Description:
- Helix 1 runs antiparallel to helix 15 (about 465-480) and helix 14 runs parallel beside helix 15 (about 465-480).
- Strand 5, helix 4 (about 130-135) and strand 6 (about 145-150) form a beta-alpha-beta unit.
- The protein has helices at about 10-20, 60-65, 110-115, 130-135, 165-180, 190-195, 200-225, 280-290, 330-335, 340-345, 370-380, 385-395, 405-415, 435-445, 465-480, 495, 505-515; strands at about 30, 45-50, 80-85, 95-100, 120-125, 145-150, 185-190, 230-235, 260-265, 270, 275, 305, 315-320, 350-355, 420-425, 450-460, 485-490, 520.
- The protein is built from 17 helices and 18 strands.
- By secondary structure, it is an alpha/beta fold.
- It has two domains: about 5-100 and about 390-520, 2,3-Bisphosphoglycerate-independent phosphoglycerate mutase, substrate-binding domain; about 110-380, Alkaline Phosphatase, subunit A.
- Helix content is about 35%, strand content about 15%.
- The protein has an eight-stranded mixed beta sheet with strand order 4-3-2-15-16-17-1-18, with helices on both faces. Strands 6-5-7-13-8-9-14-11 form an eight-stranded mixed beta sheet, sandwiched between helices.
Amino acid sequence: MTSDKRHVMAEAVRAAYRAGEDDETMEPRVLVDADGQPIGRIQDGDYVIFYDLRGEREVELTQCFTEPEFDKFPRQDMRVHFVTMIEYDKALDVRVAFPPIGRIPDTLCETVSAHGLRQVKIAESEKSIHVTFFLNGKRKTPFKGEKRVVIPSPHVMDYTQVPEMSAAAVAQATMQALRDEGNDFIVTNFANVDVVGHSENAKAIKRAVATVDHHIGQVVEAARQAGVAVLIVADHGTVEKWLYPDGAIDTGHTDSPVPCLLIAPDLPGVTLRDGGALTDVAPTVLHLLGLPQPEAMTGVSLLAGDVPRRRRRVLLLIADGWGQRDELYGNLIAAADTPVMDSLQTRYPATRLAASGEAVGMPAGTVGNSEVGHLHIGAGRCIYSDRVRVNRAIEDGSFFENEAFLWAVRGARRDGRRLHLLGIISFYSSHGSVEHLKALLRLARREGVPEVYAHGLLGRRGERPESGALYVEEIEREMQRLDVGRFVSVIGRFWALDREEHWERIEKSYRWLVYGEGHPVAASAE
């Protein structure tokens, strides 16, 4: 290990790579002093800024620091002052730096409910939040007439072990919903391609793609027999661009367009126009349902031809992570066995939809993700993402006058307590950016906070192999340049970012942060 104190944690991460570990599931590493005692642990009275975005995977870790009656595992008796970058959950006792702009009104699902129609949402638990909370415009409670069917995902550490996941049960639940003529609108999400696609296992990924293809065939046939129109879309791309040009594996999301297919035998001659985006899905579904489009929706129906608005039942089928790309290099969608989708795209109207960057409220050139994908499918208009809001605040300087951030940094300085900066160590992750961490370090330096500690969550989604060490080193260099803070611990995001109550993982992360449990990393001599 290098004797350069600036890069101690980066070298520890590289050593973990050499030992066979990866970013996603890396065991915790903790900086220790000459006596072997962990440095920079979260203690009573300390201030924490959890700078992650999205939030659905950040709730559980936040709960164990902020809920007085938390009982999922034993905790240290202490009070921590907590700030989150965005609102992870209204019930959390935290300060929020960038509160939600407000509930998104007149979404697809709210419009369906307002007209007295019944709707059913079907997904396995790994993706249920996307077809409920995000598709509903960040609304947690169901609308009137909305039923939610959540199929438990397999309880495994690695989904490549079961690339089929719970797709068969999702398909069965969908076919059952199709047989009930009282269900006017059905939304089904097949999670496999996105979830398994965040791996380096090509065989498992191709099985996941083939699984989704097979069950799409089952569901489409059931819909045809029930006389239900089907619109097939995806929320973003993933494995259709699985390799970088140099052959390295890209386990993240992509900027590819996604397929959109219409299977509606009662609409002969109708086609789908080109040049659309995910924001056009909601207007298209409303068109098919025979419902008026709210003024708030700026998207435009994709239906081209004479399509009178009349009442018909509709199934919106979301093949999560199924991007579309003509080039075969690194394209695991093209390499997989997909006879159903191949046939449907030649027999029925099909087009491609923009699902990344500015089309879904993200910075230009950035990849899509499940959150913004489902949000825009349901909203029918462009919603600026939290990442754009934060980036703009950094650019115009308002980030450094943010009330929640100032409360934390000035409180830590006034009380003589530690300031902890916790979050993803990545540039491309939908959960956050190292640029936001750098901005917080600049703020801490300006305000003269004496003790600042960074705790990083590593994950390779959308990053090159072993990129975690590069980002850790980048932050260590920035700390040296600013002469503020120490990078004291890292852990794989698998252990910290959970949304299915795997409390044994969260406890591991809690004990890493509070007790310094993990592989010790010797701090270099001053």
